[in-house]
Write a structure and sequence with these properties.
By secondary structure, the chain is an alpha/beta fold. The chain is 42% helix and 21% strand. It has 8 helices and 8 strands; from the N terminus they run βββααβαβααααβαββ. The strands form 2 sheets. A 6-stranded mixed beta sheet has the order 5-4-6-1-7-8, with helices on both faces. Strands 2-3 form a two-stranded antiparallel sheet. The longest helix has 20 residues, at 122-141. The chain is globular and about 50 Å long.
């Protein structure tokens, strides 16, 4: 039985609600260094992320890099399809709820969102994770065995999704993802696990 893999990274550097022009130019020119080699030889499906434009801006810039439209030779891969955005992985109503309590927001700034809600409202974590896992299952369902899916999302949604697939806490719950970092999720026989970490370029 073959598996399906999902590379799920945080969007690029913002300028307001959108991705900064210099960040988009860098992705278009050089890709995402820790992801580029993973795409070589793969059949790739592009997932459009969330309801926010910045996820699509990031993944579309990376698609330009992959196919080599502008300043590079591209990557030896095949883009075989597209999967529409899923608001369960990021939407205004959810993020407004996330930041509604200023005490929690202050605590999250000092520690992180997971630790803050762990103390304040752990059921919120569970609810968000259940929605995220349902979205990930739907994404995998729209791919074929052997496909590599590329998606762009937000912190802390990506971390919370990874934590939900990590019952033995191998991933630090104190993690805060930087731009263009994230995880590799693998779906096999209906089970989703975290099988890799996309680190920042050193």
């Amino acid at each position: 039985m073959m598996s399906k893999n999902l590379i799920y990274v945080r969007h690029g550097k913002k300028d307001g609600e959108n991705i900064a022009k210099d960040a988009l130019a860098a992705i278009t020119k050089s890709g995402i260094p820790m992801v580029n080699d993973l795409c070589t030889g793969q059949k790739i499906r592009i997932h459009d992320g969330t309801e926010y434009d910045r996820t699509r801006q990031t993944v579309k810039a990376y698609e330009v890099f992959l196919v080599g439209i502008q300043e590079n030779d591209g990557v030896d891969c095949e883009i075989v399809g597209y999967i529409p955005a899923d608001p369960r992985l990021g939407n205004k109503a959810l993020f407004d709820e996330w930041t509604a309590n200023p005490d929690v927001t202050a605590d999250a700034t000092t520690r992180n969102w997971y630790r803050a809600f762990e103390d304040y409202n752990p059921m919120f974590i569970t609810r968000v994770q259940l929605g995220a896992l349902a979205a990930l299952r739907d994404i995998f369902a729209q791919a074929e065995d052997g496909d590599l899916i590329l998606s762009v999302g937000h912190t802390p949604m990506i971390e919370w999704s990874a934590f939900a697939c990590d019952p033995y806490e191998n991933i630090s719950r104190d993690l805060k993802l930087a731009e263009l970092t994230g995880f590799i999720f693998t779906e096999e026989l209906g089970e989703i696990t975290v099988t890799g970490f996309i680190e920042a370029e050193i």
